Amino acid sequence: MGKSRSTRRERAAAETVVEDVDGGRAELIPDRDRPRAWSLLIDGAPQSHVDLDDPAHLSFEYQRRLGHVIDLAAPPGRPVRAVHLGGGALTLARYLAATRPRSTQQVVERDAALVQLVRRELPLDPGARIRVRSTDARAGLAKVPDGWADLVVADVFSGARTPAHLTSGEFLDDVRRALAPGGLYAANLADGPPLAHLRGQIATAADRFAELALVADPAVLRGKRFGNAVLVACDHPLPVAELTRRAASDPQPARVEHGRALADLTGGAAPVTDAAAVDSPAPPPSVFR
């Protein structure tokens, strides 16, 4: 058995794809447990996981939480029009295409070299209606027609940090412009103690949207460790009860904050403007060990 494991390790190492892209050193590492699954790392930081045989499988916890939002964006199976700001290995676009066939999607990913690598090594289903634009996320969002999107997902990181210009109220104004009535906005945020960035992002979204919910590990919400939180916003009532049920039953359970509890979490933080925006905080080195 030891020899078999060694052989698998050698085969995995031989099949790892390493390539320089605009954002750094990209690695595509095969998953030993899934024959056609891969993890994408940029400069050692995990970015995406894709199973070409099962695109509905979401391995990373924050992607599963975004998957819950996608599932609740419309009745099961109904096609939607979605904009993804940040592409990575196109995991969530593949998920949506698999779970909501005939959906139309636009992916905005600034790193053109990364897009080429992913298209070559992890090709998309030719039947999926996914268009990928290689440009800045905010510039790409500006080209989305007014009221076009049922769903906008923001998952943009540069050097493991969200760029400042994607954290402001002015940015959210353009998200609102692109959303159809009743459309959902979901953002993957990363922060650690004292949660200043997360509090500011909640306050900014609350200044622009009528309804908010936040999905995160309780330890992150308590400021005990650095981690991801998914912020969901809409101008109509959110499916909070179902989102809570799904988050609680996840392999890595999360808590959903909403209403007064979420407002209290802001701790008096002010909405972020373009003039005052800064990049999200860098994760501590221990996060990726």
Largest sheet: 8 strands, mixed
- Residue stretches low in confidence (pLDDT < 50, at least 5 long) are 1-14
By secondary-structure content and strand pairing, the structural class works out as alpha/beta
Approximately how much helix is present in the residues?
25-40%
Computed CA radius of gyration, to the nearest angstrom: 18 Å
Series of H and E elements: HEEEEHEHEHEHEHEHEHEHEH
Which CATH architecture? 3-Layer(aba) Sandwich
Tell me the fraction of residues in β-strands, as a range.
25-35%
Number of domains: 1
The number of strands is 12
CATH classification class: Alpha Beta
Overall 3D geometry? globular
| Distance between the ends | 27 Å
- Mean pLDDT over the residues: 94
According to CATH, what is the topology?
Rossmann fold
Order of strands across the widest beta sheet? 7-6-5-8-9-11-10-12
Mind telling me the CATH superfamily name? Vaccinia Virus protein VP39
Task: Output the number of helix runs.
Answer: 10
